Amino acid sequence: MKSSHIILFISLTLCFTTIPMETEKLHSIFVPAQNGYIPENYAQKITFDEPIHAFNILHNPVKDDFGQNYCIADFKKQLDETFPEKLPNLKLYGSSQGTATLINWLADQPIEMQNKVKCLILESVIGSGNNAIVHTCENLVKPIGYLPFAHYWLPICAKICFPHYNPLGKQALNSAKKLPNNLPIIIMHAITDPQLSINDARELYCTLREKGNDNIYLFEINTDQPVHSDILRFETNMNRHQQNYSALQHIFEKYNLPYNKKIKNELRVNLKNYQPNTQEVKNKIKKNTEVGNFIKKSINTFTGLAAASYLYSFFSAY
After folding, report:
1. Helix residue ranges, H only, 258-316
2. Measured between alpha carbons, how far is 153 from 169 in angstroms, rounded to an integer?
3. N or C terminus of the chain with fewer C-beta within 10 Å?
4. Are 190 and 198 in contact (CB under 8 A)?
5. Which residues make Cβ contacts (< 8 Å) with residue 255, sequence separation at least 6?
6. pTM (2 d.p.)
7. Phi-psi bin for 187: left (phi > 0), alpha (psi -120 to 50), beta?
């Protein structure tokens, strides 16, 4: 082969060879619960080699509203301040109130913005502020949740403490229906959470799976004590926690996200264990609530009939 042919061959090869481009840097953003608490091992939960921005820490929203309009506005303000020119690719991590803030915010974003989010991690999910209020009251003062029609009037009474919360406003379980189906979403929730029911996390998982997203993972965390947030910090059931840490890294690797190879390789993980069948999850919800719901419905029915009988006798006297 002539030298000119060799040079032409090399030139054509270079022209049609794909030269790998440097991928855009991934930034992690952490949005905490109302108290602005950052888990001690947050960096370990995510990875060790990426920028981490903690929002709502130095100036936690004055107008807490369980992730509704005021929290969203505060998040957007800090996002614009941190990235004034161009929004990079993001890994979003929300805890408690932060979960509702992120879901409600992302659901209303245009597709271009949604595509910037490469992973959404939700710890201690607020599916509904109303559910959170009722569940917290049931655990703090157990009988109160069984008072007649408590689910309807407790959120209204809670406005004394949270005047900016709107019981009829944005709720994460509804907003989640507008999240993109290709977005990897990791849901982590303590089974014994005293403030937010595990059933909110389960309902969110089922909602996302049934709308066509196969990239959803549910971590039901076992602890031997009531734990609300930072659920992987507690040293109870340590073997399970090590498995969860490793599973997180397996998920990150699967979606071409930065991950910690050492933690990933500590244990073999079957990610299918974190993607249960939706009917199986619904059965857990039903089993978890059937006794309480039966008592509440019985009380509500009796109260309603008693009130109706009283009103009938009162007006029929005239």
Report:
1. 261-264, 278-316
2. 15
3. C
4. yes
5. 118, 119, 184, 215
6. 0.82
7. beta
